[in-house]
Amino acid sequence: MPEGDTVFLAGKKLDRALAGRTLVRTDFRHPALATADLAGREVLGVRTVGKHLFTRFSGELSLHSHLKMDGSWEVYRPGGRWRHPAHHVRVVLAAEEVQAVGFRLHDLELLPTGEESRLVGHLGPDLLDPQWTDEHTGRAVAALTARPDRELGLALLDQRVMAGVGNLYKCEICFLLGVTPWVPVSEVDARKTVALARKLLLANAWRHEQSTTGDTTRGRRNWVYERSRQGCFRCGGRLRVGTQGHDVQRRPTWYCPRCQRGPAPAT
After folding, report:
1. Per the residue annotation, which of 2, 56, 172, 240 is the catalytic one?
2. Are 171 and 253 in contact (CB under 8 A)?
3. d(Cα 209, Cα 217) in Å, to the nearest integer?
4. Residue 243 pairs with which residues in a beta bridge?
5. Is position 3 annotated as part of the catalytic site?
6. In terms of DSSP H, where are the helices of the chain?
7. Max Cα-Cα span within the chain
8. pLDDT in tens, the chain (267 residues)
């Protein structure tokens, strides 16, 4: 599933392409929205909350979408060739000079703009919220420490704690804290953890190359995530990969046994 900064960047791309334009054609290829027609409505803007996208239209109407594992929004000129097969298209929003095409989108829903909180009100503070304050930090810290015995990696992936962290940042945050993802939350500084999560997402919010090391060169962007062949970016040692979570929440989890202390599953 994409990280919050990936969704944030997708939202900004859509906003630049569509905001202020009037739709001349829409095509919803989704059973629940097959008869929807937004032609004539102005696009007011695009809002992201964690991993959720809201495209807002005149008339107090919003389109909610979630990228899940494989969804994407792409922008084309009218008549431009799509990079993905037509049977992957779920929605087309077309204005005079541009069209936005949603491929393999999930959880599509049209709803009154005033009801957006119905879909995201359960989430923790959005780490990329431009209005972030100390109150947001306090809420995230309180949610993170509410279950002190919980594995840190699982708590970081819980969007009800703070919205935006995915598996990449989970692994990298734990590395930078010097602990394995299986340590209990009680063994880390919760305020430092929240600040680090926000710092990493903000650093990558406006670029496609996600880097937690500060180096955007290919093969040097992460400390441990997906570095099984290269080894730990800090010490060069061999990494281990365990699984964390259950059922659909199971994720491969990279860590360095030299640089990170704490429990880990048998590998």
Report:
1. 2
2. yes
3. 9
4. 252
5. yes
6. 4-18, 117-120, 134-145, 152-157, 167-177, 190-204
7. 60
8. 678 999 999 999 999 999 999 999 999 999 999 999 999 999 999 999 998 999 999 999 999 999 888 899 999 999 899 999 999 999 999 999 999 999 999 889 999 999 999 999 999 999 999 999 999 999 999 999 999 999 999 999 999 999 999 999 999 999 999 999 999 999 999 999 999 999 999 999 988 899 999 999 999 999 999 999 999 999 999 999 999 988 767 899 999 999 999 999 976
Active site residue 97: no
- From the list 3, 90, 181, 240, the catalytic residue is 3
Whether 250 sits among the annotated catalytic residues: the reply is: no
Q: Is 199 a catalytic residue?
A: no
Q: What is the pTM of this model?
A: 0.91
The catalytic position among 56, 221, 240, 251 is: 251
